[in-house]
Amino acid sequence: MKINFFLLLILSCLVKSWSQGNQLIQISGLVLTDIDSEPKPLPFAEISIIGTGRGVYADSKGFFSMAVQKNDTLVFNYLGFKPIFYIVPDSLGKSHYTIFQIMTRDTIYLPETIVYPWPDKNYFKQEFLAMDISNVLQETALKNLAQDNLRKFFEFTPTDGQASSQLYLVQQAQKNYYNGQFRPNNLLSPTAWIAFFKAWKRGDFKRKK
User: What residues does each domain of the chain span?
Assistant: First the structure.
């Protein structure tokens, strides 16, 4: 009986210490950067826990909140910025904490490269003096810079990775915002009708040949 009692006592102490070591802590805060000596939020920054596959995204104002454990390693990621690692201290006594994480830009300077279309830079003067500056080239340049042509280029030019990720995160945030409720109907929105009539006058709905 004494052996069983001591075993139960040791087991209860182990369970108590394990539960205290794995106590969940709510970490909330802002992800910021320094622009012109003023803090600016980083919208939709990614905060994940290394080795767990769990993480969250900050909202449009850089605010985030997530449940962690002591000694967890958080990594803050944002496109164009250096990743930041934060280890949750094991000395925390409360269940809620707030942090302000500042991130810095990851700027890489490449060595200067000068590309010449001639075998040697001394040929530049000769080629420049022989350049054709007739009206034909001027008309071609003006045609390429016309608003209609530029608008066509914009329609077929794909967006870069940062723009695509920002658009996706904004769509996800809007989707989560309306979870459990009905989306507003733009049929009764005056702003939507004004935008519709402007697009109609511009001819956006005309069939393109």
Answer: 24-103, 123-202
Comparing CA positions, the residue from 87, 70, 86 lying closest to residue 20 is 70
Q: What is the spatial distance between Cα 187 and Cα 185, in angstroms, rounded to a whole number?
A: 5
Secondary-structure class of domain 24-103 per CATH:
mainly beta
β-pairing verdict for 84-87 and 73-77: antiparallel
Could you give the CA distance from residue 87 to residue 177 in angstroms, rounded to a whole number? 30
* pLDDT tens per residue, range 80-118: 899 999 999 888 778 888 899 999 988 777 788 877 777
Q: Please report, to the nearest 10 degrees, the dihedral formed by the alpha carbons of residues 90, 92, 94, 99 taken in order.
A: -110
* pTM tops 0.85, yes or no: no
Tokens coding 31? 């992800």
**Interval 56-69: pLDDT, tens:** 999 989 999 999 98
